[in-house]
């Protein structure tokens, strides 16, 4: 079974057993989470989308806080002596999909 689920404003294509990184979720390692906002499901020859979908994606948190790659935002105006450097690392949660019901 395949599903497209919306997690923290982003859409992810998932199957049972998939492991993925999603934007940071509240919870600790080993906690079970459910995502009710399923947009699309595909099971064999049966396809459901929109309001017809009544599925729930169940997952387990593997690692609760993982930092992504560093992103640098650098601004400069030539010949003016203006230089500004900002950076950040986005925080993710590593989850494993246990099932789609």
Lay out the secondary structure:
Blueprint: E1 2-7, E2 10-15, E3 19-23, E4 32-35, E5 38-43, E6 46-49, E7 57-77, E8 82-100
Would you give an account of this structure?
With 101 residues, the protein is mainly β. The protein has one domain. It has strands at residues 2-7, 10-15, 19-23, 32-35, 38-43, 46-49, 57-77, 82-100. It has a 4-stranded antiparallel beta sheet, with no helix packed on it. The protein has a 4-stranded antiparallel beta sheet with strand order 3-8-7-4, with no helix packed on it. It starts with a strand and ends with a strand. The model has no long low-confidence stretch (mean pLDDT 96).
Alpha-carbon distance between the termini?
A: 9 Å
The average pLDDT value, as a whole number, equals 96
**Gyration radius, to the nearest Å?**
19 Å
Shape: elongated
Major sheet attributes: 4 strands, antiparallel
Topology, number of strands: 8
Helical content band = under 10%
Portion in beta strands? over 45%
Poorly predicted runs of 5 or more residues: none
SSE run:
EEEEEEEE
Helix-and-strand structural type: mainly beta
Strand order of the largest sheet: 2-1-5-6
Count of domains: 1
Q: Helix segment count? A: 0
